[in-house]
From TrEMBL:
Probably binds two magnesium or manganese ions per subunit. It comes from Goekera deserti. This is Exodeoxyribonuclease III. The record marks 228 as: Important for catalytic activity. The active site is at residues 114, 157, 258. Its EC number is 3.1.11.2. The record marks 258 as: Interaction with DNA substrate. The lineage of its organism: Bacteria, Bacillati, Actinomycetota, Actinomycetes, Geodermatophilales. The keyword Protein biosynthesis does not apply. It is an enzyme of class 3 (hydrolase). PANTHER family: EXODEOXYRIBONUCLEASE III. Pfam families: Exo_endo_phos (PF03372). Its cofactor is Mg(2+); Mn(2+). One of its GO terms (molecular function) is double-stranded DNA 3'-5' DNA exonuclease activity.
Amino acid sequence: MRLATWNVNSIRSRVDRVAAWLERQDVDVLALQETKCKDDQFPEERFTALGYQVAHVGLNQWNGVALLSRVGLDDVQVGFPGQPTWSAKEGVEPAVEARAIGATCGGVRVWSLYVPNGRQLGDPHLDYKLAWLEALRVTAGEWLAQDAEAQVALVGDWNIAPQDDDVWDMSVFSHSTHVSPPERAAFRAVVEAGYTDVVRPHAPGPGVYTYWDYTQLRFPRREGMRIDFVLGSPALTRRVSGALIDRQERKGKGASDHAPVVVELGE
DNA sequence: ATGGTTGTGTAACAA
């Protein structure tokens, strides 16, 4: 089974590219982030025509996560237990954002996750991000406490570069989010709860990234960040036989600023 | 040059 994750930065502007890529890469399950649309705007028929079932949550033009699967899509869950809420502005009732959707696909509990962007050090968004990751760590840890053999994949855009090699130049990030000690500790806590980065051994750095900013010629200059991850539970990690970051897909007109990440699972 | 691009939706905001 081939499992993939991709921050597409708007599914409506990328639907042709995603559909073509799915067929080319022979992917069974694809987790999408930043679909940037409401549920009724999601181009579901494009994917059902290719044999995929679709689950999506999108509340407005921000965030939005989805799962496409051709190996079953059962027990869909919008948001994870304990997922923190966010209030966009003063006076607006805090709500759970469209940042997490889970389903069982071919025996694997797959979660498509879009971790909040912390924006700046000291920004309330960073506190939200850290609380979000801590809540995820607690819940995902409970899943393994209940069933140590559970096959769980926590996949998506984590908005964290866990190691210095995961950015092109650490000195550029000395006062930035994504690399700060609290963010790295929050990521490490998920790993220590039992979830392994299954891609890195198959796509080692330095210089291997999943995201390149649209501005400042970051992609041709090879100035990127590794911030998209597939974290596997122990039982899932044992099944991983290969992985790749499809850098080709970042090329050309109409590319997302993120590349897709693919994991091959054996029996 | 204190920005640089791309997305939402059509002014700003988000990344």
